[in-house]
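pinging the channel bc i need a second pair of eyes. not urgent but kinda urgent?? the chain im working w is below, pasted from the shared doc
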Amino acid sequence: MVKLTDSTLTFFNLIACFSGGFFVVAILKLLRLMPISFPNLLVLLGALQGFILAVLLWFNPKGLRLSNRLLAVLVGLLALASLAVGIPLFTWQVNLFLDLTPLIMVMPFGPLIYFYTRSLLDPDFRLGKRERRHFWPVIIDWGGKLIGWGFLFGVLFGVFDHEDNQKVGHIMDEYNTYVDIPRWLSVTVYLMVTRRWLQQVEKTNSGTEQQQVNLRWLRQFLTVFLVFQVIWLIHLIPYIVPATRNALLDAFGWYPLYIPIAVMIYWLGLRGYLHSRNPVMAEPVGKTTSAVLPNELIQETSNGLLKSMEMDKLYLDPELTVEKVGRHLRVSLKTISAVLNQHLGKSFNTFVNEYRLEEVKRRLTDSTHSNLTLTGIAFECGFNSQATFQRTFKQMTGVSPREYLNRQAAF
């Protein structure tokens, strides 16, 4: 065990100043007289640095707000988990707090990784009701703590005997052990889905400098998590086997997982923060490229795009992507992007949202849709969030949807 000395605190004061971790200094001073192992200290420093970076990302005025906040939540959850493992158990109150508070929440990691990737490459992406459902499995993380709370209230109301605390503690320990299996599977599946989606985007991206920078960062982002999943699996297999569990924890504890997590926290948070603050200006719409499409191909693709919207009404699909349109028209995605950007002068989202908006305006004057709210009509016309609908309507008409309705009523 290592007891913090004045020289040690001075050393970490210098680290904190360079990293902006003034809160780290305050906590270390509180721990000055407390014995704490050096690996635990590293884990705690990672947790505190994670909280700082999460706050910086959450309030970062630059970059995409949703992307910054998704990454902030991800880094914050990693920091919470590190705090739960690294905090010294110096009083029974701290022990009880850790037993009853769900600081380790892993089930949201996969959705956060996936939605962060989506939001960074699609500025119109929003978290709607459908996306929020992906976070419901967090209840799995709370299972052990809910057992503890159930026992606590049971004792208070005379349902359980206080002497049963060891049995309940054993049940909680077993639950917390085997819950790592669905946690690992969840993160791995989401990583695979995200990686596959990213590969599809790489095949169809327009080649702008901004897209290339984002793609490079996201490849690194996913690689870090995939490497960690391998480390976790190596630790998980002997951990879930009763015959080897105690020997593993006695020899290594949780450090093979949480020291890499401390490194991940710092790298992901700082790298993501710097990435959002140093955006590359996107190339202007309609910029010519060296590739020149034949006039016949341009005309055929333009007609196909118009037909897919006006007759096939693909815009009604709230999850419509350029990939889906490409499969529908049997045209390469680069060709569709080139025709839209260079010859129609529109991005894919603008092109689709124009049709959605016209459909909304048509249905607003149709009495058969009078039973629906404005938001309900927008969702039926292909918009996947109220925020996207409101913003698109204002950009394309110059007025808000409510102002538009009031003007229509006046005529």
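so The radius of gyration is 26 Å. and The chain has three domains: 1-33, 37-277, 296-410. — does that match what u expected or am i reading it wrong
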